[in-house]
Amino acid sequence: MRILLMRKEYSNFLILNIFSRVPCPLPLSMLTEGVTYCDYGQDILVCKPKKEMFQKAMMEAGVTDNEKCLFVDDSYGMFLCLLGRES
After folding, report:
1. pTM over cut 0.90
2. How many Å apart are CA 64 and CA 78, to the nearest integer?
3. What is the DSSP letter of 24?
4. Of 74, 52, 57, 64, which Cα lies nearest the Cα of 3?
5. How far is CA 75 from CA 11, 39, 60, 82, in A?
6. Is 76 within 8 Å of 87 (Cβ atoms)?
7. Model confidence over 12-65: pLDDT tens digits?
């Protein structure tokens, strides 16, 4: 798997738009250094693709420079949304 090759040079941190009590899907939980979740218990919902969700993940991963981050997703629509385009 490519994620295993990436682990040699990068820390992998999973961002999920699911409730935090749902266990991280295996084997993904074994391939990452951390997981952050969308918190549906908050008054203001923060989830992908909102900038605040990525900032939350960076803070939890201990990353301060977004130039050192690489976003990988399984949804083409998410990339279009991040680019400001509709899917």
Report:
1. no
2. 23
3. P
4. 74
5. 21, 20, 23, 11
6. yes
7. 788 887 755 556 555 666 677 888 888 888 898 888 888 898 898 889 888 898
Record the tokens describing residue 59, joined without a space.
């803070």
Number of other CB atoms surrounding residue 35 within 10 Å: 20
Interatomic CA distance for residues 36 and 33, integer angstroms: 11
- Element at 43 (helix H, strand E): none
Strands (E), 1-87: 13-16, 34-37
- How many helices (H) and strands (E) would you count in the chain? 4, 2
